[in-house]
Amino acid sequence: MTPSQLDTAVRRTSAAVVAIGLLAVTGWWVVGNHADGLLGAMALGRIAGLLSAALLLVQVLLMARVPVLERAWGQDALARQHRLVGFTSFNLLLVHLVLIAWAYAGGPGRLVTSTWHLVVDYPGMLLALAGTVCLVMVVVTSVRAARRALRYESWHLLHLYAYLGVGLALPHQLWTGQDFVGHPVVTALWWTVWGASLAAVLVWRVALPLAVTARHGLRVTSVVEEGDGVVSVYLSGRRLERLRVEPGQFLVWRFLGRSGWTRGNPYSLSAAPDGRSLRITVKALGDGSAELRALRPGMRALVEGPYGRLSPRARTARRVALIGSGVGITPLRALAEGLDYAPGDAVLLHRYAREPLFGSELEVLRRERGLAVVDLPGPRRTPDSWLGRIEPAVDDASALRAWVPDIAERDVYVCGPHGWAEAVRRAARAAGVPARRIHTEAFGW
User: Which cofactors does it use (predicted)?
Assistant: First the structure.
């Protein structure tokens, strides 16, 4: 079985496990509530709460950095599913709160007083209320309009309260939930699943990064200005050939000794790993990225990863097209160096505003490897296009076919801002590229 086939099998299996789990939760609710009716406010409130909790569990696992899921889905796809599952879980939580409060009150007349007694008198309800407040804060700050108003560092810190919210909301289900009280086997199973999820977070997001950091001892060797607010950071360490990072992948970086080091930032490698050193190239778009130019040789780095599916693992065709915008060229620059291809089999389309990044390096790859490079300078012609002004004025898909006539037979790797990357994906699909051959990594948060 090829890596691509294995990843497809993992994606299908994981999706089936989630579906089976939700069906099992629903089935248990039917068994426990059929005698009293399934359409009453209390029963519907219970199933909404059970499904909300089950989806919270899925959320935790999606972001637990479980390697088999990371390799099969890629971080971008997992993040999209995490967002969808999160909003669905939160909506179900609101339905649960409203229906349960209504059922206990018996109508609108005693809604406030009944809700107060429910929260104060039942075990675990005060904890659940505190957990709900945490989750509300996370959801509100995850709405795109709110995210645009926040710094990445602030949003990242607030988002960590999701773990606290989940932990505080869980006990009341087991202490007061009719579907668990008096059912020790189901309760034990529920605790076991949540315990395994917590273990996954602690192993893959805490223990493993600490072990990787200790094993490889990554340190900054130099910081180089690339121009236009962009810097490259070079790092060295021990036994880097065992880091198992592929061209195009990213790691989450924390540079010890600088302010805000506890907050990780995802940065892609901008050069193919050679077992001796690593390079990341970053544009100053936030507090964390702007501070990288102040790094000094010898500063240590704590890393998580590698992550991402924008790598040779996703490749299914002999020929490839690499399409990047601005600093999104960084993982594609690493792929252009690290992929195996014959002259003419790889083409790089680079959108940039003023000066191309890595211009001299790409010229070397053009001469030595036969990489075809298409420069696309200037601002985008319209917000829904990935192109600048071109002559003749043709649609995005036609322009893509003109530059890469066999685009439908290639793997297409895309990296850039969310809206721009989506425009490239639409153009590639319109040009005949199958969805399975479009590998996208959009930077942003």
Answer: FAD
pLDDT band, residue 336 (cuts 50/70/90): very high
Segment 342-357 shows an average pLDDT of 90
According to DSSP, the β-strands at 438-443 and 320-325 are: unpaired
Map out the domains of the chain as residue ranges.
Answer: 3-211, 217-307, 312-443
Task: Report how many helices (DSSP H) and strands (DSSP E) the chain contains, helices first.
Answer: 16, 11
Q: What is the DSSP string of 145-165?
A: HHHHHS-HHHHHHHHTHHHHH
Q: Phi first, then psi: what are they for 308, rounded to 5°? A: 100, 145
Helical pair 111-121 and 75-105, crossing angle rounded to 10 deg: 110
**Residue-wise pLDDT tens digits, 270-299:** 999 998 999 999 987 766 677 788 889 999
Closest listed residue to residue 423, CA positions, set 388, 393, 392, 396: 396
In DSSP terms, 417 is beta-bridged to 443
Q: Which amino acid is at 416?
A: G
Kindly report, residue by residue over 134-168, the tens digit of the pLDDT. 777 777 776 665 566 666 666 666 666 677 777 77
DSSP string covering 43-85: HHHHHHHHHHHHHHHHHHHHTTT-HHHHHHH-HHHHHHHHHHH
Return mean pLDDT, the chain: 85
Q: Which residues are CB-neighbours of 182 under 8 A, at least 6 positions away?
A: none
Q: Which fold, 312-443?
A: Rossmann fold (3.40.50)
Contact 45, 100 (CB under 8 A): yes
Amino acid identity, residue 285? L
Residues in a beta bridge with 236: 219, 277
One fold for 217-307 and 312-443: no
Q: What is the CATH number of domain 3-211?
A: 1.20.120
What dihedral do alpha carbons 301, 304, 305, 307 form, nearest 10°? -110
17: its two tokens: 């496990």
For residue 332, the model assigns a pLDDT of: 96
Write down the pLDDT at residue 339. 95
**399 in Cβ contact with 393 (< 8 Å):** no
| C-alpha to C-alpha distance for 100 and 177, rounded to whole angstroms | 11
Gyration radius of the chain's alpha carbons: 25
DSSP helix/strand/coil, 285 = coil
- Cβ–Cβ < 8 Å for 43, 407: no
Residue 395 tokens read as 């649609």
| 217-307 placed in CATH 2.40.30.10 | yes
Residues 6+ apart with CB under 8 A from 222: 233, 234, 297
Amino acid present at 372: A
